[in-house]
Design goal:
The protein is mainly alpha-helical. About 50% of the residues lie in helices and about 10% in strands. The chain is elongated, with a radius of gyration of 18 Å. This is BTB domain-containing protein.
């Protein structure tokens, strides 16, 4: 994440609007980025400017850590996400390797970013995060902790559907250890949903494929995308 870290460092120095992440990390948003937020993330901009008017910081919570918020700031400025090379357990920008986020943690960070974009109604960011997530999931498995952290078990939620289908395909293909399988079984509602998934009652049949493999093979991924404005 060196490109993102270098980019985000400026927001700890410049001062205009401030965001407090997880009660500890402070980011100072300069006017040029604030203008980009106004057009690209209007709901976030509205919340931020409301707090500015009262001379307060906007408080933002994450499921993971401030890496997620730094990815959001990077995307809001550049309208892209960095290249994630989960196969090397890091993130690279072009041919330059970085070392701060391991492959499994990338899944959590991207899922967190998707949830953040859901909260602030940023469908373009949700779709970019989902595409990156599907690329990463070709290389790493969804962990029991990740499923437990992000599941809502609502069929209409694209993120939850992707995570569930990835896990179901991995279980069907014996990609998990006995300990991991036992941990999945403890996730509330999972066993019933796994049974319905292997019966082919959802968008994809996990006995045949997973969302990441379907996406990599050029399949239709619209079911996991948000309608952009």
């Amino acid at each position: 994440m060196e490109e993102v870290k270098a980019f985000a460092s400026q927001f700890r120095k410049q001062s205009f609007a401030t965001v407090l992440v997880d009660g500890g990390d402070i980011y100072k948003i300069p006017i040029p980025l604030l203008e980009k937020l106004k057009t690209r993330c209007p709901n976030f901009w509205g919340r931020l400017t409301e707090e500015m008017a009262m001379q307060r910081s906007l408080s933002v919570g994450t499921y993971t850590n401030a890496d997620m918020f730094e990815l959001f700031l990077f995307w809001a400025s550049e309208l892209r996400l960095p290249h994630f090379d989960a196969g090397k357990d890091d993130i690279t920008v072009g041919d330059v390797p970085t070392t701060s986020v391991e492959g499994e943690d990338i899944v959590d960070t991207l899922a967190d970013l998707w949830m953040f974009a859901e909260e602030f109604s940023i469908p373009e960011l949700q779709n970019d995060a989902m595409k990156k997530l599907l690329e990463v999931l070709l290389e790493v498995n969804v962990r029991p902790f990740t499923l437990s952290q992000f599941h809502r078990f609502r069929e209409e939620e694209a993120l939850q559907s992707v995570l569930l289908l990835e896990v179901a395909h991995g279980l069907w293909c014996d990609c998990y250890t006995e300990q991991e399988m036992a941990e999945f079984a403890k996730v509330e509602g999972f066993l019933e949903l796994f049974a319905s998934l292997v019966r082919g009652e959802r968008r994809l049949d996990p006995k045949e494929t997973s969302p990441s493999r379907h996406f990599a093979n050029g399949g239709d991924n619209s079911a996991f995308m948000r309608r952009e404005t």
